[in-house]
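TICKET: design request
STATUS: open
ATTACHED STRUCTURE:
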């Protein structure tokens, strides 16, 4: 009866233990991975350092709640300041308050210019037809507006509550009618906390692309200070051409999302983007980038990670791993035909 050397027994034992520990470790660890996400929501909050948001749109109605400053240049617009009679002005400058609200009818608005890192909340009403859209910004916004010629359906005018008219009056309301030829321009800067309500026509396309996201994204309502300790935000039902799902690209896995799921995205080194959003029956959101964590659940205490494990990622590369022995066999065959292996064996004997 042959005796198996002690060192061979230990080697086999260590290999089995190491393999077992490796499988356990790879099953419990979840390395960063690339994801593609599509969700339909009524509300989405996130932090961004993007320099701007939105493209130019024609708005039947634009409401700015939270005004900093407003500068208007006109061909001649009749403006009523407080209780005074209308006065035709070519230049108007006012300073607002956080509680100031300005309403503009029949205008074309530029995209929003953002300052530094802002916390934005995109919102649509519960019965959205794609023509109504809101943005709440925790961070000042700059916006340019150009008056359009009035039409029977849409007037061309504006009004503001409680503003200080430079070199005239303080804490007064103003009302004005833009020049009928159009072209009057307004540049305004908002307060640090502002809401903008856009109401266009059915042909208006609200949306944007390639917006960098800073920090964790949670589907929760954002408070006045930009905190996310408010009410959770649930997914809207998917549409015909838009699904609520997550795709883990490295492993080829798809996860369908329930409309009652709560979601939390944790980017890896801020490599995460709002690739595209558009407004329809909700806000159709496409997210893409590298995540360190993705959690979902029925409630805050039920949130759990759904990230692929290291084992899943290794398994996804099994074709590559299986090819290694095949490549080695081919190389050995080539060496054997060249007689190199035979020479080596003869030298050893």
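STATUS: resolved
RESOLUTION: sequence designed for all positions
ATTACHED SEQUENCE:
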């Amino acid at each position: 009866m042959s005796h198996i050397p002690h060192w061979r027994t230990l080697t086999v034992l260590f290999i089995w233990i190491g393999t077992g520990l490796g499988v356990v470790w790879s099953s419990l660890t979840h390395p960063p991975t690339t994801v593609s996400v599509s969700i339909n929501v009524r509300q989405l909050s996130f932090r961004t350092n993007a320099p701007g948001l939105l493209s130019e749109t024609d708005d039947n109605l634009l409401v700015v709640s939270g005004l900093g400053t407003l500068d208007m240049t006109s061909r001649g617009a009749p403006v009523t300041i407080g209780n005074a009679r209308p006065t035709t002005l070519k230049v108007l400058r006012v300073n607002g308050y956080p509680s100031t609200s300005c309403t503009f009818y029949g205008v074309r608005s530029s995209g929003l210019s953002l300052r530094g890192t802002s916390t934005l909340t995109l919102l649509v009403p519960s019965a959205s037809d794609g023509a109504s859209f809101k943005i709440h910004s925790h961070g000042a916004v700059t916006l340019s507006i150009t008056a359009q010629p009035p039409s029977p359906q849409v007037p061309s005018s504006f009004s503001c509550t409680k503003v200080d008219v430079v070199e005239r009056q303080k804490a007064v309301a103003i009302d004005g009618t833009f020049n009928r030829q159009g072209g009057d321009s307004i540049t305004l800067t908002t307060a640090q906390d502002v809401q903008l309500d856009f109401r266009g026509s059915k042909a208006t396309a609200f949306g944007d692309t390639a917006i960098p996201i800073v920090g964790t994204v949670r589907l929760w309502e954002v408070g006045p200070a930009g905190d996310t300790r408010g009410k959770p935000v649930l997914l809207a039902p998917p549409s015909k051409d838009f699904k609520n799902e997550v795709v883990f690209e490295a492993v080829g896995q798809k996860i369908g999302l329930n409309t009652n799921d709560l979601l939390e995205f944790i980017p890896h080194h801020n490599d995460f983007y709002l690739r595209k959003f558009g407004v329809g029956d909700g806000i159709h959101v496409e997210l893409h980038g590298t995540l360190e964590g993705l959690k979902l659940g029925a409630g805050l205490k039920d949130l759990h990670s759904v990230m692929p494990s290291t084992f899943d990622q290794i398994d996804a590369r099994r074709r590559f791993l299986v090819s290694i022995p095949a490549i080695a066999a081919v190389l050995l065959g080539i060496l054997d035909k060249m007689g190199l292996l035979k020479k080596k064996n003869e030298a050893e004997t």
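CLOSING REMARK: The two ends are 27 Å apart (CA to CA). The chain is about 15% helix and 45% strand.
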